[in-house]
Amino acid sequence: MSVDPVDDCTFWYSTEYLPSNGSFNWHTRIASFKFPGCGGPDFSISATPSSQTVVAGNSTPYTVNVGALNGFSGTVNFSASGLPSGAGANFNPTSVSGSGSSTMTVTTSTSTPAGTYTITITGASGSLSHSATVSLTVNAVAQPNYSLSASPSSVTITQGTSGNSTITVTPQNGFTGSVALSASGLPSGVAAAFNPAAQRARAR
Q1: How far apart are the C-alpha atoms of 79 and 65, rounded to whole Å?
Q2: Per mean pLDDT, which of 18-32, 93-107, 155-169 is the most reliable?
Q3: CA dist 3 to 8, 14, 32, 41, 179, Å?
Q4: Per residue in 180-201, pLDDT tens?
Q5: Spatial contact of 17 and 27, defined as CB atoms under 8 Å apart
Q6: N or C, which end of the chain has less CB nearby within 10 Å?
């Protein structure tokens, strides 16, 4: 183990090891650590929540927190990378002095592809730079559709008579089209008629 002469605070350690499933294929592992109270002024950065879900065309917020270390009082400017196509991020405020928080709002468009993305939030102040990552899941925009229901759902009739059932068209996700009705599975000698033969969906 040795101390980094650049900052006199970072401890470096290296060793070699042989994987349990290997044979004479030695690996080298290098690790380092630094005590928070050691060194000059610095800052830390974190973000919450760690993940958000949004429907394409909408926006969602994250809170970015900056902590001051060893008397840090500089200005930390924010940026974001790893955003999906058609999405953008803005910070309010755009920078923080010393310690504080900022709200990052990620705005997607209806063309943003569905999927899960890792967004890297970077805070920079002079030569100092730290980052945190969050996850964004984008769901596709629901397509207009409709559902049918019948009341009553069961009709009993005597041969030579008729029965009625009310068919209701319920729109979903802004559906406004006209629905043509038909029936199948009827027994021999039985016919079905609709009045009207088509229905336009109405919001309920």
Answers
A1: 13
A2: 93-107
A3: 6, 12, 9, 19, 76
A4: 999 999 998 899 999 988 777 6
A5: yes
A6: C
Question: Among candidates 146, 32, 52, which has minimal Cα distance to 103?
Answer: 52
What the block records as the tokens of 142 is 């629901």
What CA–CA distance (Å, rounded) separates 55 from 64? 22
Rounded to whole angstroms, the maximal C-alpha distance in the chain is 101
Beta bridge partners of 69: 42
Whether the link from the prior residue into 144 is cis, omega within 30° of 0, is: no
Separation CA 51–CA 43 (nearest Å): 23
What values do phi and psi take at 184, rounded to 5? -135, 170
Residues shown for the chain: 204
Provide the whole-model pTM: 0.62
Encoded tokens for 66: 């900056």
Tally of CA atoms within 13 A in the half-sphere of 123 that contains its CB: 30
What does the alpha-carbon distance between residue 140 and residue 42 come to, in Å, rounded to a whole number? 41
Three-state SS for 6? coil
